[in-house]
Amino acid sequence: MSANIYDIHRYGTVAFLLSVGAVVAVFLYFSNSLVNDLATQERARMQIWADATREIVNATTSADPAQSDHIDFLLSIIIANNNIPVLITDDAGNIVDNRNFNLPEPADPLNPMFLSEANEAYLRGKLEKLSHTPNVIHISIAPGINQHIYYEDSTLLRHLSLYPYIQLIVMLAFVAVVYFAVSSSKKAEQNKVWVGLSKETAHQLGTPISSLMAWIELMRAMEIDPEMVGEMDKDVKRLSTIASRFSKIGSRPKMEESDLNDVISRSADYMSTRISSRVSLNVTTDPDALIVNMSEPLVEWVMENLIKNAVDAMEGQGSITISVGRVDNMAQILVSDTGKGMSRKMRKNVFRPGFTTKKRGWGLGLTLARRIVEQYHGGQICVSASEPGVGTTFRILLPLR
């Protein structure tokens, strides 16, 4: 069931991202349509401007006085262009006129057509760039005489062309912030649930454990079989230890320097008498002491949980190998089994709260194990290798003192 929950979560995430992508695509489509429409209008305006320029040249060569009003109208069209930068060249590539460019030096008011060296170089650079764009209109002034109008996109069009990309970045940033906030809130809520559940479990175990301890003392006083009472006492003390472990979840445990070899060996010894005799449990420790600042009860809990999971994965038959060693400045623990292994999908979800492949179980063991290793001990835990039908290896790294 928990696996289905994470499938639903994954599909929901994919659906959310697809929805966001669709919305972004719609916005980009309409924004680009707006930019393209404006570009088309600007080209039409420049075509009118070019036609007006050609008509002025033709009109000035005519002696008809009636052409004066017509020339004034054409000049008004040319003067009206105050936002589109324009360069006019002849067939030889000489710059005949320019408009609406931010020249590096002010033009000479007495001779506006004169270009200083700086302005000439600036406009030549602009002409070189514009010659590689479609923003050019060719006009015939007279038979065999042509001029070429090069124009840049207006400031408004340039800003609008950037707008879709700015919009995309803003939307993606907004979606990322929302997704991160929701995920963080959900994770914090899950942590509260698991911490609360752990502490409540410890509280509920406290009363029956105290009662069992009292019964054991009564059985000792009644001189009932000491061996049987001793075994019962071990199990009751174990229950007390388990309750203590649950109570430590959510609060900072007491950390002490201990030899990791001893802690792992003690955990393995305890579990070896409580698992199937058909399961072989082998432990290899490091010849040197591995001093780690740890909470021994919690590290033992992690090891016992991994061993139990390994036994379940092998269905009560196979071998478990635990090796303890040193990797750089970290202590390494490898727990390998010969069980059924995990698929790549399962490996992604194995540490998630509530995820379990067993018919019974809360799916909390590996979640709490990761919390203990990473948050309390500053280490790492992961599935280093797993293959269906072959087995699984968990890897734990803890910082050495």
Describe the structure.
The chain has 401 residues and is α+β, with helices and mostly antiparallel strands. The chain is 56% helix and 18% strand. It has helices at 2-60, 67-80, 117-130, 155-221, 226-248, 260-272, 296-313, 344-349, 365-376; strands at residues 86-90, 95-99, 136-142, 145-151, 256-259, 279-284, 291-294, 318-327, 330-337, 380-387, 391-399. The strands form three sheets. It has a five-stranded mixed β-sheet. A four-stranded antiparallel β-sheet has the order 2-1-4-3, sandwiched between helices. The protein starts with a helix and ends with a strand. The mean pLDDT is 80.
Task: From the structure above, extract its key features.
401 residues; 4-stranded antiparallel β-sheet; 18% strand; 5-stranded mixed β-sheet; single chain
Q: Give the class from helix and strand content and strand pairing.
A: alpha+beta
Order of strands across the main sheet: 6-8-9-11-10
Q: Which sequence of SSEs, written as H and E, runs from N to C?
A: HHEEHEEHHEHEEHEEHHEE
Outline the low-pLDDT stretches. none
- Binned strand content: 15-25%
